[in-house]
Fold these 4 entries.
Entry 1:
Amino acid sequence: MHREDRKKDPRPIMRCGCEARIKVHADDASGRWFVEQICDNHNHPMLDARFRGLSRSQRAIKEGDLHQMNSMRKAGLRVSTIFRAFANQSGGFETVRFEIKDIYNAIEKQRRAGVTDAESALKFLGNLRTTDSGMFWRYSLDVDKRLENLFWCDGISRYDYSIFGDVLGFDATYGRNKYKFPLVIFSGVDHHMRTVVFGCAILSNESKASYVWLLRSFLEAMKGKQPKSVITDGDLAMKSAVSTVFLGAHHRLCSWHLLRNATARVGRPGFLRKFRLCLMGDLEVDEFETIWTDSVADHGLEDHPWIVDMYAKKHSWSNAHIWGKFFAGLKTTSRCEALNMQLGKFIHNGYNLREFVEHFQHYLEFMRRRELVADYKSAYGEPIVKTKLEPIEQFVATIYIREVFELFREVLMLASNVRVVSTKRTSACVLFEVAMYCKQRSWAVS
């Protein structure tokens, strides 16, 4: 029947009045089937063999295929990759007995079966606790009793934070789940100078209230231990929540975001060079004040709103004012952003909440495997001596992790090229005159 309100074109007519049929009946006494009538008169050409997998009557995902498909999805394979795997097994795409959209339909059918997505995710976290007593999660509901925010971390993440939690970085990203909600990952730096994950959260929005709830849940999971330093991208809601919950932490703004904002808001190359120096240079406070004041005056930016705001926040970004605060070498949220990029290899945009939580835990297992490899490389084998201060270098190699040792050796190599020319003791300090070997230039060190 033709309908005026039809959104899609109707399917082609497949019925042609073909009389081919077979009639059977079952004999109750013997339990056997008998053919009563058969008609092999077709009024149409037979279906080409290469089209059999596309016929609606022949197309189906069998139970064994479904189990195999679910196993491949748990390993993080995309639907297109799964379909190629089936084609490889069966000898070509034309011999696969279903289409790629049938895989999507099967996935959606499994999602709709049983409890809701939120209940399934919480049940999965509960099941993890059977093998991990340190598993922790908290969630909040909105006025309609729907899941609003979810935070979780496992026992290993909580232990890592107890060791490496002095410096905390977190950032929000989008598009990593079916609902496009913000994803927040808490991370830091471990003893191998690698990124370590402390926890993960999915929020319904990026309001101050959501971040305050999240940071309080994070503190609860970490038994009240507050970080000494926090680095974020400068989001106002994040900044306000950090000052509300992490009372004793020093909040640093991401240098990369500040340079990008300076380029967009000011855009003057001369000022940008001076701003980069104020941001990342090893300056004293009085040197910073002189360079900043002169640069702002030279470019007539005294009344620029962004310049005024940045000067008021100088204790959150200037190296001169942050000097002495511990940030484990972090100046940007680039580790957080790199983490989000790596996460894309394990988590696809179409994952629902339960699938996201499961594959995020798979990603953590992958990261921890890399830490195991780093532990092995650090524990076995002795590094080759490169400096003339062999006793010092050999001793340090026995007490430092390999990555930290290599950082120390760079400084040691520079120090081994310096000689002390003269020494002078004053009432306040000792003054050294040092020079490089075979160089005329010297430096005064106090």
Entry 2:
Amino acid sequence: MAACLKSQTVSLKGMYDEALSSFFRNVNTRTDGDSADICGGKIYSLKARALLIDMEEGVVNEILQGPLKDVFDSKQLITDVSGSGNNWAVGHKVYGCQYREDIVEKLRKTAEHCDCLQCFFVIHSMGGGTGSGLGTFVLKVLEDEFPEVYRFVTSVYPSREDDVITSPYNSVLAMKELSDHADCVLPIENESLFDIVSKINQMTNCGKLGSTIKPTSMVTSSAGGIIQSREKPFDAMNNIVANLLLNLTSSARFEGSLNMDLNEISMNLVPFPRIHYLVSSLTPLYTLADVNVPSRRLDQMFSDAFSKDHQLLRADPKHSLYLACALLVRGNVQISDLRRNIERLKPSLQFVSWNQEGWKTGLCSVPPVGHSHSLLALANNTCVKPTFIELKERFTRLYKKKAHLHHYLHTDGMEQSCFSEALSSLSDLIEDYNQLDAANSRPAIGPPRLKIAM
């Protein structure tokens, strides 16, 4: 919905253009057999370039009965009935094997409709069985079948108060697959998303935004009322993630003076294969909420992007070590504005000693709907380490007691070594970040001075 809204706002004449073609096919549904793609001209029927997979059919059925029912091709859905029971092993080992051929066939069909396939986006949750298990199985399939195509993964990590008891197991088992098979991972936490949405609601209810919320606003509940803090506003939280992806792909969809391809992000921000977890921050935070939020001043927008309140992960990158940072700006912003703000912020940011100029910048001339400009910051920063340490501690508390382990070990193909290997992989990743922090904290040692005999 968000992609349709933003693309069609730019293409006011209802024409199928490059901005729409990145996310959607233009299909003539009146033709016999497979719907034929129409490359340009008038919009006939938009079909998302997406494959929806869920082993509990309720969520997909809800989409098919909602306002987006015509956007998703019914031939590009894979569902089951019983779900994965919050069990990574069921999602990965059972449903993965059962549906592999169907997944590969549908992926190939989707890829064949692309003129220039640049990357795959995998969007999944980490706490449940299908998202963690089957989600990472799909990631491995993509690596096997399309080894040259970049794999960007948006992973939603569970909160500390998650109601899935086995989520630490599922998340750590999934983390091993992410470290081994993804090119870039954008970790997001439910808790951070919920805090952002709560902040939007609080500001709105206090009247600080100076605007009214429409009944169909994306920060309202399905009943039409403003979401209260006791509810979990999943629609609004999902819209923030959609906003992240829209900003990430803006250079591929719109013109700009300094466009950035997705492969450039991986090339410039990932210095080591496994250190590919990028912390994302957005400003303004309210682009997809149907609220007339006053635009932030340009300089303030850059400052916001580095504050912990705008991170989609509970982290404070300003007090941790940067390996590299990308700034993707949209709107009427000049390159000189970018350079000026980078120079202004550099003294307060700690970059690794061997990459002091580790900035990558992109300028897209088309701003988000309702705003003059926006900024997405992607940071390869050691501030992700506390999230991984906390996840390891939660895993270890269960694993020491072998609690709930039998549910996993009863699954065909699942052995206890899978747990020890996943824990070892996460421990190694944490140690990699420890070494980066330790190396940068040591004083720089200059070349040995020449000793002159007296």
Entry 3:
Amino acid sequence: MPKSPEQRSYLVLENYIGGKFVSCRNHIDSYDPSTGEVYCKVPDSGKEEVDAAVAAAREAFPDWSARSPQQRGEVLNKLADLIEANMEEFIQAESKDQGKTVTFARTVDIPRSAYNFRFFASSVLHHTTDCSQMDHMGCLNYTVRCPVGVAGLISPWNLPLYLLTWKIAPAIATGNTVVAKPSEMTSVTAWMMCKLMGQAGVPPGVVNIVFGTGPRAGDALVSHPEVPLISFTGSSATARRITERSAPYCKKLSLELGGKNPAIIFADADLEQCIETTVRSSFSNQGEICLCTSRIYVERSIYSEFLERFVAAARKWKTGAPSDPNNHNGALISKEHLEKVRSFVALAKSEGAVIHCGEGVDCLDLPEPNKSGYFMPPTVISGISDRSRVMQEEIFGPVTCVCPFDTEDEAVARGNGVRYGLSATVWSRDVGRVHRLAQRLQAGLVWTNCWLVRDLNLPFGGMKHSGVGREGGKDSYHFFTEVKSITIKH
């Protein structure tokens, strides 16, 4: 017999403030997306907890910011060592909490989380500042960079530890202290990392993690007068709220938001490589990556062949139990999100589009424990207008739309015809063409004949409604520091 809710033992998380775990009076249910069952209780923190975390971060700031970059880097590297030493536990926890496959957590999320600390421990050592001479005035000008203070960091549910560490690492490497709020839907790996902080030599108060919802914990953090800087990854709607709430305090903001990313495929593309990569770019991590391809424009002369081969490849992209190594996709994050994604497919159908595979076409054969999980097979749609909400709004699920185009100018105009501008992919062997398109596409990242190849030194971020600011080696260094110009007359 299934256990009643009273009999079940839940994982109960606690906030991490000033180097100690602090219990919370109220909790939020967190679900295992692959079964649809509550398995974890997450603190429902508010102003009181955020105030305590900010106070701890302020107290820790003078000592931490006075350390050399090398000393801070040693702590970051030790934290990376400890994540790697506990790799398997982190992998299993991330899969269970988020719904993604164990394989994806093993190959992407957790290795990258450790690497984020290593990367910034090293990169922070290699920046130089500016100097200029004004000999005719007997003056020398130079710049210095100083940490800002307490950084407020808010990370999303799609790549939980990966994107949290992408913010914590540069913030503390540059001498700031932090108050971080992970998504209330995926808080477990952040809590597990807190257990390693003391062992890694992170002084109390340097990293504080407060769990809870955006409207309560997030709002208290972004409107706190003593948090001068906010880094947020998530939806454009939430970003608007953050901008409004932080505006009275003139905070520095870094906002990494949604995407409605086009792939533009020309007749001279290497179709085999293109189809294999575009299936991956459309459906990886259940389509829950801001960089996923959701609009595919194909030159008309190869459109029919591409569509047939692409649908066949999408059908081979297996969805099911996250623990099964044969599966490419696991479950979507929540029941509400699954319903939202399905509603877009229903809308496309009502507008006369063709659903070639996936939702409503192919049945999933799920193991018994997963029958109530939030699963959806890769779904390919054609025959949809560019003006449709399905083509304009971020769906953030395993859904992509395929359309034919005739000319390069048309492809660019349609590629740019949304309010987002995060990434784009171009498939062609014509060197001149790929350079032209890279220049003309309104996207912060343009990949040619590949997808998601990242050098962390280079800027990451989007144009238009896809965000404000950039992240990466130099960009994160600039964001998490204040520059000061100094003039000496001799």
Entry 4:
Amino acid sequence: MFSLICSQELKNKKGNWKMMAIHDVHSDDHHKGAMADGLMSKAATMEIPINSNGNTGTLAEDDGLEQQVMVSGPNLNETSIVSGGYGGTAEGIIPTGSIKGSSMHHSSSSSSMAAEEATRGVAVEKLETVKKWGLNTYKCTKQMISERFGRGSRTVDLELEAQIELLRDTKRKYESVLRLARALTNHFYNMVQTQHALGDTFADLSQKSPELRDEFGYNAETQKLLCKNGETLLGAINYFVSSINTLVNKTMEDTLMTIKMYENARLEFDAYRSDLEELSLGPRDAAAVARIDAAQQQYQVQKDKYERLRSDVAIKLKFLEENKVKVMHKQLLLFHNAISAYFAGNQQQLEQTLKQFNIKLKPPGADKPSWLEEP
């Protein structure tokens, strides 16, 4: 009986011990859960101080807690935006990676759209330019054909047209003078070279022919003197040719280019004037009035351009005439004095003429490269 009672008490104690162990296990789990919740809440609300050097300072809490938070902290690349507390469901979680991708896609699409808009704007501008050029060319061609067949009228400035025609005729004559002066230079250069060679031959024969030494010597000296005077005259003629070439092919040509621009402006002006006259004779509805207004604006633009170029041509013609008289007065005087002095055999007068016009002759062989520059 006693043993039965003892065994029953022993069983009751074992049951109590098991209940106590289970209670301890649950209490330990509850304590650990509470500590984990505390750590998570502390990590979520904790501030990391930064000192003046930009380094994180030490926390007032335990160093082990700081290390645990730093090691097991959230990964910024995998951060998610949660629409709720820590205990919320998985719904409403938006990965930040998807936000970055969408923003990058939006920026790239915006840049591509901007590039397409710029390209489209350039294409439209070029198309408008080609359209205007084609319309202007059509009108000018129509006006030109009408004038050629006597159907259209043209604007004429009689005084200016006479001056332009005189300039063209003068240019043709000056070109003829320039061509003949160049031919004279070439022929005279060949004659001077022949005289130089002839003088050298006479000098050589004078040394090799004792019985004719004096005669060959006189002729050699004469040819050398003629050669020297010929080179001086060539310098004067070359200066004359250079000045005439500048006057004809630069000064006159520049004025003729302005005249060409003026004539093109006159043709455009008459083309738009004829177009405006045709529109004015038509009906006067709303569309026609709009076209007349646009034609009137174009007509005014072309008229201003025509008048401006006409004024430029008149001014250039005036200055060209003054410059031509000044240049030709100097060059004709030089040409006359040099030719007269040469054929008169007046060497001193020939040299004085070149000094008067500040002409410096190149020494013989100046155009040839030195022996250091020869290949």
